[in-house]
Amino acid sequence: MTEWDIKKLQILRTLRDRGTVTATAEVLLMTPSAVSQQLTNLARQLGVQLLEAQGRRVRLTDAAHLVLRHAEVVFAQLERADAELDGYLRGEAGQVRVAAFSTAVPALVVPAVQQLRTAHPGLDVRVREAEAAEAYELLAAGEVDLALSLAAHAPSVRDPKFSRLPLLADPLDVALPAGHPLADAPGLRLADLSAEPWIFGGSGPWSEITTAACEAAGFVPEQAHSASGWTAILAMVEAGMGVALVPRMASAERRTGVVMRVLAADQPRRHIVAAVRRGAEEGPALARVLAALGQAAAARETVQQN
Length: 306
Description:
This protein has nine helices and eleven strands. The chain has helices at 6-18, 21-28, 32-46, 62-90, 104-119, 132-140, 206-216, 230-238, 284-305; strands at 51-54, 57-60, 94-100, 123-129, 146-150, 162-177, 197-201, 222-227, 244-247, 258-261, 269-277. Helix 7 links the parallel strand 7 and strand 8 (222-227). The mean pLDDT is 88.
């Protein structure tokens, strides 16, 4: 039988994901020469060529992709084994590390943690705020166990490394200065604001979300200003510097000089998902955290509909 080396397969997998031997070495805290040597040994053990020279870089052969397709099944099964062993050894105890974007922390993560502290006091949930793309990098690197992010910026559902759980479709409302002519206009649509200067988010995917929502309504928004936090964005709206799309989950940041309008039609939404490494969702501690997040999302959706 062919000798399979899990450590070397992980190196090959990281090379596929990172693209270069140097980047692979940095992630795995190895030297580039050690990475190359391990992959040469793996090719010798398997009896196939795994890498081909492509200029100053290397590319994975078809045989390497075949090997990784089967290896992903093995990695998922090992995650399940780890999860089951953790449940056997720890029972109600254990630690789950969560990475989540800024507005999801108070709106979803904090209520979930509060519920878990009552129902499962031995479960230790550690929270780390991270932008959408960073959350998945942390998850892939094993630095967190669960990533809470936006579906538009999550790995594909076909990605064999992750399992995704839809949580919430968060509506986007329009923030207008209190004295704006359309602040109390009936039947407000996004297209009615096509001539307005827009305030974009300066970090994460928010500029893309604003642009996509406006383009779906039939116009390209004029970006007048940008800021990285809702406090700054709403302060500029209050000062009459422009209008902005604001997720309903960020409602705690609202200001007295800002009118939040629910759009009468073509209401844009951002879809929030939780992701874990495939197979890990079967671990009892992680499953409890996912369930608590689902309950928090359901409660918020009920509030939003009322």
